[in-house]
Design a protein that fits this description.
This protein is an alpha/beta fold. It contains 11 helices and 12 strands. The radius of gyration is 21 Å and the shape is globular. The mean pLDDT is 96.
Length: 324
């Protein structure tokens, strides 16, 4: 019996040509059809017709995983973050789950760097101002040279950002409880704690996963330790930040600017106070999206799925310990 793959993506919006071609050449039946990640009935209906799901941002909790158990055998996340999938529950129901680590690291790091530069130089207000008929040539910003940049978390994306920052005269600190040392040639100094990182840096860029321990952990306690007027950059997950505390820190001037590619609620409600602040710059969770990262991701996903169908769990399967 042929393996069927359902991809929760619209091929008119996401270039899936490589992956579709590869799967069909492998003899798989493929359906690329996006349904709303919030429409549980539609997600389950599509998933129950497939053996393999290429998942977007829909949540896979115990209830949904139980509903597709016995049919879906493999969930491949399009991306790195697995906070939308209950790995243990998936394993109990015999469903392997894989992600795509590292493929979009450079792309996300570039967007973090864009936000860092914009937070300092106010490039976006200048560009939009010209389009709206203005010509404010006295917008005064702050150079990146001479600043201390802090990286909370030091995984693939943070390491790529550190590499990109190497072209500037900056000091780079990093704190990651799982990293005990950093090679000297990377030009990054380990901070002893998150508190030290926030105290010492002019710019703090977040690169931590969304877990039970990290959700809401970047809060008023840490913001109060920041240099007055420092910048916060977030390209990881919106829910690691306590947004109420962030708004208060921005209003008070403790934080001078924020560059956010992610929010706790996406898309945001129109009354989200962050949308109304002149010193907050929000992009639409597009950090991972580049032509190059898309191709790299699809190559890894294709390999993961093909190996699974052959009875092999690739190194990117993240719930091996929960599988029976």
């Amino acid at each position: 019996m042929s393996t069927k793959v359902w991809m929760n993506f619209d091929p008119e919006k996401v270039d899936l040509d490589y992956l579709i071609k590869r799967f069909r050449e492998s003899g798989f039946e493929v359906e690329a059809k996006a349904v709303s990640v919030d429409d549980t009935a539609a997600v389950l209906a599509k998933a129950k017709s497939a053996d393999v799901v290429i998942a977007a941002m829909e949540k896979w909790d115990e209830e949904k995983l139980a509903a597709v158990a016995g049919k879906v055998k493999f969930i491949q996340k399009y991306g790195t973050g697995l906070d939308t999938i209950d790995l243990e529950a998936a394993g109990r129901h015999g469903i392997a789950v894989a992600n795509v680590p590292g493929a979009n690291a450079a792309a996300v790091a570039e967007v973090a760097l864009l936000h860092i530069l914009n937070a300092g130089r106010r490039f976006v207000p200048c560009v939009t101002g010209v389009k709206n008929g203005g010509w404010n040539c006295t917008i005064t910003g702050r150079e990146l040279d001479g600043k201390t940049v802090g990286l909370l978390g030091y995984g693939r994306i943070a390491r790529n950002l550190a590499r990109m920052l190497g072209g500037f005269r900056v000091n780079i600190l990093a704190y990651d409880p799982f990293v005990q040392s950093i090679p000297e040639e990377e030009g990054v100094v380990l901070a002893a704690s998150a508190e030290e990182l926030f105290e010492q840096c002019d710019i703090v860029s977040l690169h931590i996963p969304s877990t039970e321990e990290t959700r809401g952990s970047v809060d008023g306690r840490l913001f109060s330790r920041m240099k007055k007027g420092a910048c916060l950059i977030n390209t990881c997950r919106g829910d690691v930040v306590n947004e109420k505390d962030l708004v208060e820190a921005l209003y008070s001037g403790r934080i001078g600017a924020a560059g956010l590619d992610v929010l706790a609620e996406e898309p945001p409600r129109s009354d989200n106070p962050l949308l109304l602040m002149d010193n907050v710059f929000i992009s639409s969770h597009m950090g991972a999206e580049s032509f190059e990262s898309g191709r790299r991701s699809q190559e890894i996903m294709g390999e993961n799925v093909e190996l699974f169908v052959k009875g092999i769990l690739s190194e990117n399967v993240r719930n091996k310990e929960f599988l029976g």
